Amino acid sequence: MTALLVTRLAKSFGGLRVTKGVDLAVEAGERRLIIGPNGAGKTTLFNLITGEISPDGGSIRLFGADITNTPCRRRVHLGMARTYQIITLFPRDTILRNVTLALLGLSTLRWNPFVALDLQHDLAARAHAALARVGLDEIAERPLGETSYGERRRVEIAMAMAQSPRLLLLDEPFAGLSIDERRDVQKLLRAIPRDVTMVMIEHNMDVALDFADRITLLHFGEVIVEGTRAEVVADPRTREVYLGE
Amino acid sequence: MSAPVTRRAAPGVALLVIALALLATLPAWVGNAYYINVASQILLFAVFALALNVLVGYGGLVSLGHAGLFAVAGYTTALMLQAGQGHLAADVAAVGVTLVVSAVFAVLALRATGIGFLMITLALGQILWGIAYRWANLTNGDNGVNVSTRPAPFGISLAGAQSFYFATLVVFLLALATMALFVRSPFGASLRGARDQARRMTALGYNVWLIRFLAFLFSGFWSGIAGILFVYYNQFISPQIAALQTSAEVLLMVISGGTATLAGPIVGAAIVVIMKNVVSAYVVRWNMVLGLIFVAIITFMPEGLVPGSARLWRWAWRRAKTPQKTAPQKTTPQMTTPASRGDRP
User: Fold this and answer.
1) Is A73 close to B207, i.e. CB distance below 8 A?
2) What is the ipTM of this complex?
3) Residue A85 in domain
4) Pairwise CA distance, residues B278 & B276, whole Å
5) Are the beta carbons of B153 and B232 closer than 8 angstroms?
6) Residue A28 lies in a domain
7) What pLDDT does B344 receive?
């Protein structure tokens, strides 16, 4: 089954066409890597898929359902989760509270003004479990402002995974990480079960190529190469626009 | 895990018990009806400031139009009573009308955040002030509306300063308890999340607009309750209460006391009301003194009096503890070695 089907997706900012009729079909359970030089429109494509910006044309289907005009927040309830290139968390709160907010986002409890959040033990247990999966449960009560960059990346992944997504979009999850931190995140992503379909934008080819089943190369808002790792790496257009050979 | 939490909460609980005891016995140790009335004013403006703090502190939405909501409740109560309705009907209508007006405010103002939100609320507040001032057939214009009686809930007359104080105290405590629950609730967490990272909250599945809208209604509800208390306290209402100055004053109460805290708006309300009622009797230019106090607070405690005082207290506490730990090591190091204490066999 196709998890994500993007058809002739288009977006312009003023006179600048940043997404030009992109087609993308990601099968359920697949690990898809999206690469391309800076300005290729990779993050814009993610923002279109998640609904943070509206397309000018084309359609998006999530597990067969047309979500082209579905608001961003509803897409999350349909099983879509994402992480951001620039870490976007809640620095005034603890790590645990950050993950709790992710869990609350899918719960009707989020509208309840009559109960204390700290007394929702089931929610706290699920947040702890999500943090245990990324190895952060021991520092769950630490304020986010006192954590390292690598730990915040893991918090982002924990938040996304806490929502039990069917489709996970990762925007440069290795950006800014040290070699050790990169290895940790790599291990985390590898441990995510195949019932979660993953699409990742990444510049670091060492770690990214290892992750991908298939690769899509974007250039100036267009898909110019798509295929298996070997096919994409061997393609002369990849070398020309991306690898610089 | 519960022991440290209990230890941490103990000073707060002790302070709360002391504050409650002081408030409950205030008429006994104040005595003078004038000062009891000042205390009633502090409490009712504290309810108003707490209501505004929901938006300013927890929602990150600075409103300069809340005097309009406060006045809508006051005018509705006064006009209903003038039309011969009972107190209960007047109060219920006041809350209902305030909620409807709050909803209109919210729908219009939440088209923007930041300075845009502030300007829209300011404009809406000014429209209500204009209606109060100019629609004389309805509001009696500058002459205002008199309220001849105060209610007598459960047969208890609120005509006296003391009984009115206790009624205001009950409403204040109810507001405080509701706010305390609200900010600790999942909805309160959602509102703070929307304040800190609106985009992220949307990407986590939250309807940020609706969260802010409901918070606005909650804020409007308690502003309306404060407006009803105000009109009963003064037994008179005029357009002045809907003016920008009232909105600015209550905003200053919130900011000077400390936004996103429960105690901050109460302290802020106490400062402003005491300055207006007590200090103004001794200092002709009390407005200038109030201004200087605000400048001092913003300069030395930009986070507000309550969080600022807590910060100073922690700093003083750390300083007081540090020399006790280090002094013996510096002066007589041999005294602190394990051997000298007999730890080593």
Assistant:
1) yes
2) 0.93
3) no
4) 6
5) no
6) yes
7) 34
Domain that holds residue A158: 90-164
Residues A126 and A172 occupy one common structural domain: no
Q: Which residues form the domain of B181?
A: 31-242
Q: In A, which residues are within 8 Å of B196 by CB distance?
A: 90-92
Residues A62 and A171 in one domain: yes
Q: In this structure, are A135 and A233 located in the same domain? A: no
Would the CB atoms of A115 and B186 count as touching at under 8 Å? yes
What tokens does B312 get? Answer: 């100073």
Check which CATH number belongs to the domain holding A239 and give it.
3.40.50.300
> What pLDDT score does A238 carry?
87
Q: Are A183 and A196 contained in the same domain?
A: yes
d(CA A185, CA A176): 12
A-interface mutation test, from B174, B185, B201, B216, most A Cβ less than 10 A away: B185
Last residue of a domain, one of A164, A188, A208: A164
What domain count does chain B have? 1
State how far the Cα of A29 lies from the Cα of A32, in Å rounded to an integer. 9
d(CA A233, CA A239): 7
* B321 Cβ under 8 Å from any chain A Cβ: no
Residue B88 maps to a domain: yes
| A86 reaches B (C-beta below 8 A) | no
Question: Cβ contact (<8 Å) for B203 and A163?
Answer: no
Report the b/e string of B202-218 with b at 16+ CB within 10 A. Answer: bbbbbbbbebbbbbbbb
A84 part of a folded domain: no
Pairing of strands A197-201, A167-171: parallel
Position A16 scores a pLDDT of 92
Test A110 with B190 for CB contact under 8 angstroms: yes
pLDDT in tens, chain A (245 residues): 899 999 999 999 998 999 999 999 999 999 999 999 888 999 999 999 999 999 999 999 999 999 999 999 999 999 999 999 888 899 999 999 999 999 999 999 999 999 999 999 999 999 999 999 999 999 999 999 999 999 999 999 999 999 999 999 999 999 888 888 988 899 999 999 999 999 999 887 777 788 899 999 999 999 999 999 889 888 999 888 866 65
Does B60 lie at the interface with A, CB-CB under 8 angstroms? no
Q: Does A140 fall in a domain?
A: yes
Which B residues 94-113 touch A at CB under 8 Å?
A: none
Q: Which of B174, B179, B182, B204 to mutate to test the interface with A (most CBs of A within 10 A)?
A: B204
Q: Total domain count for chain A?
A: 2
Most distant CA pair in chain B, distance: 95
Put simply, the chain B residues between 158 and 197 with a CB less than 8 A from any chain A CB are: 181-182, 184-190, 192-193, 196-197
Q: What is the pLDDT of residue B343?
A: 39
Whether residue A11 is found in the same domain as residue A123 = no
